């Protein structure tokens, strides 16, 4: 559970660099390193912080092509398809969505022939729609207090500028 602005500040620092030492975070927000450690432990224990990850530059890792692939799968095949795509190492993210298509996947790929191969393998279950990523405008966007405040304002009928 996020208790106050200090928790939000800690979360912002960790989202920028999860390896930031507690002492540095403490100096930045006006707390001791031990107080920062206690707050981070509470955020971890409550499930606000789910873990820490390494961000990989896909291009430098030899996967310069990214694509989103959406697909509509018959209800009777949905569970089978979800199990099937878990075997695709190219699928680095998959979400169930609303609309004509029920799933959207983000894929990391070597080139267009690799993309064609993935599409062919997916087509067994439906008609995939592909969107090739030209560039990332926002990558790993920050989750911040302002999102919560904006949602509350919208709920109260206050339309922000």
TrEMBL record:
InterPro entries tied to this protein: AsnC-type_HTH_dom, Dimeric_a/b-barrel, Tscrpt_reg_AsnC-like, Tscrpt_reg_AsnC/Lrp_C, WH-like_DNA-bd_sf, WH_DNA-bd_sf
SUPFAM superfamilies named among the record's database cross-references: Dimeric alpha+beta barrel, Winged helix' DNA-binding domain
Gene3D superfamilies the UniProt entry points to: 3.30.70.920, Winged helix-like DNA-binding domain superfamily/Winged helix DNA-binding domain
Boundaries of every HTH asnC-type domain copy: 1-64
Coiled coil start-end: none
Keywords: DNA-binding, Transcription, Transcription regulation
Any Pfam family matching the protein: HTH_AsnC-type
PANTHER family per UniProt: HTH-TYPE TRANSCRIPTIONAL REGULATOR LRPC, LEUCINE-RESPONSIVE REGULATORY PROTEIN
UniProt name for this protein: Lrp/AsnC family transcriptional regulator
Organism: Aquimarina hainanensis
Top-level taxonomy: Bacteria, Pseudomonadati, Bacteroidota, Flavobacteriia, Flavobacteriales
